Amino acid sequence: MYPSIQLLPGAIGEILATASETGIISEADRYGLMAAVLEDRLNEEERRAVNRLLRAIRRGKVTVKTASQL
């Protein structure tokens, strides 16, 4: 059985704000976003924030860094 992963309330907004400032999301942020999307419990505002972040990653404005790269 896999451990349960839950995103903290307000974490998506914090991840988006940090990524906008630094241009980087951590590997932990990536897993948190993945867990939130897979649980399918996002409200419309959170879903839009995740979509904005994914577009920024796809365009190269935000990069995903592993712990060893930080």
Characterization of this structure:
The chain is built from 3 helices and 2 strands, in the order αβααβ. It has 70 residues and is mainly alpha-helical. The protein has a two-stranded parallel sheet with strand order 1-2. Helix 1 packs parallel to helix 3.
Give short descriptive properties of this protein.
70 residues; mainly alpha; two-stranded parallel ribbon; 3 helices; 59% helix; globular
Please provide a brief summary of the model.
This protein has helices spanning 11-22, 27-39, 44-59, and strands spanning 24-26, 63-65.
Percent helix range = 55-70%
Mean pLDDT across every amino acid position: 83
User: What is the tally of helical segments?
Assistant: 3
Strand order of the largest sheet: 1-2
Radius of gyration: 12 Å
- Structural class call reads mainly alpha
Strand content: 5-15%
Residue stretches low in confidence (pLDDT < 50, at least 5 long) are none
Number of strands: 2
* Molecular shape: globular
Secondary-structure element order, as H and E?
Answer: HEHHE
* Largest sheet: number of strands, sense, barrel closure: 2 strands, parallel
Total number of domains = 1
In whole angstroms, the N-to-C terminal distance is: 31 Å
